[in-house]
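User: quick one, sequence for these tokens?
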């Protein structure tokens, strides 16, 4: 599940100057969507590149917009209507004006905005979710119970967006019932709160990997090969690196070049990842050949505890260098499995052993090396249930 942060910036939060400050802070923090009044759509697009949703009571009028920049990416019903309590809910929801608007098939992406003012509004939100692409639920005296109820009852036909005012509330929303909300609608103009909410989103999306130690069985010089350095647009910490390997089922942890050396300055944005044929792990559990990486691609950064994050490739350097072949054995339920990779013969390339950061030039048979092992084969970078022999 990919979580999202929506920033509420309609007329209820202040004048256009204050809304501009809020939206600008959101753009800098990396919000996914901005929710505004329809009259502000074009002005938001002038501020930066972001998805824009607009409150609207009659989605049929979308086609009347003359300026393409004034057309929102999604239209949300409920403000000044039944959704926010301005208009009373009808006894029979078949007579709901908001629901009727949602059900009009005009080709637009639609959202429903519902303030949970009582149990009947939970029922209304459930009904709206059947037709809305996004269902926004905003608690008044917010407790976790209404959100738990809605997460449990609403299916995958909609994305459930919980209204929050702080990053702490956002974290709770993302963790409720372990499944969590698909996104949060943040109503705050505090730049720090906006940034922290985006950080909470990023943390919720991160995959955790089970890393294990395998016994090194051989380290040998193999001659020259085309070696790949992956330079990212992010600075990595001392415990971070990437997972690379000649075999997709066994990817070795290689440290980023964060350590100072008598011979070369640190390059904390770089991983010297091995030869062009090797796999590197990418976000979402995929892999990509090192030779195919290019600026703008995403790779997965992982630390020695298995926590991951995404990083954008800024540059890939391919040069001929002398290499080592590192071979290790993994204990599996079916027996011992051998995995290997090629790494440059240089003291600046560090793997992780029981003793910690270890230069590949100091690696010996019998050492235990950190890696990620999975028994799935790969086809175009995706795991498949297939028998493939790699040796």
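Assistant:
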């Amino acid at each position: 599940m990919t979580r999202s942060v929506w920033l509420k910036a309609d007329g209820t939060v202040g004048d256009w100057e204050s809304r501009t400050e809020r939206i600008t802070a959101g753009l800098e923090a990396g919000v996914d969507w901005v929710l505004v009044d329809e009259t502000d759509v074009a002005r938001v697009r002038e501020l930066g590149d972001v998805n824009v949703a607009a409150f609207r009571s009659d989605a049929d009028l979308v086609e009347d917009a003359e300026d393409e920049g004034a057309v929102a990416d999604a239209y949300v019903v409920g403000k000044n209507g039944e959704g926010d309590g301005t208009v009373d809910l009808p006894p029979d929801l078949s007579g709901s004006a908001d629901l009727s608007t949602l059900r009009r098939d005009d080709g637009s992406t639609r959202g429903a905005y519902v303030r949970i003012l009582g149990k009947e509004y939970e029922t209304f939100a459930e009904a709206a979710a059947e037709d809305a692409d996004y269902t926004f639920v905003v608690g008044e005296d917010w407790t976790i119970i209404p959100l738990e109820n809605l997460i449990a009852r609403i299916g995958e036909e909609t994305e459930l967006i919980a209204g929050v005012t702080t990053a702490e509330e956002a974290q709770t929303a993302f963790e409720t019932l372990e499944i969590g909300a698909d996104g949060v609608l943040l109503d705050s103009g505090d730049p720090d709160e906006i940034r922290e909410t985006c950080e909470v989103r990023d943390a919720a999306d991160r995959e955790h990997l089970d890393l294990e130690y395998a016994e090194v069985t051989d380290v040998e010089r193999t001659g020259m090969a085309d070696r790949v350095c992956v330079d990212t647009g992010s600075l990595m910490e001392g415990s971070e690196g990437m997972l690379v390997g000649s075999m997709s089922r066994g990817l070795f942890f290689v440290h980023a070049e964060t350590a100072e050396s008598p011979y070369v300055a640190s390059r904390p944005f770089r991983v010297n990842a091995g030869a062009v044929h090797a796999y590197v792990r990418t976000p979402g559990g995929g892999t990509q050949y090192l030779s195919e990486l290019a600026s703008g691609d995403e790779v997965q950064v992982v630390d020695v505890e298995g926590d991951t994050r995404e990083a954008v490739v800024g540059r890939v350097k391919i040069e001929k260098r002398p290499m080592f072949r590192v071979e290790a054995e993994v204990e599996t339920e079916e027996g011992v499995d051998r995995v290997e990779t090629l790494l440059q013969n240089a003291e600046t390339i560090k793997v992780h052993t029981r003793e910690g950061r270890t230069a590949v030039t100091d690696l010996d048979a019998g050492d235990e090396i950190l890696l990620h092992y999975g028994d799935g084969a790969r086809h175009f970078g995706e795991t498949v249930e297939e028998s493939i022999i790699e040796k």
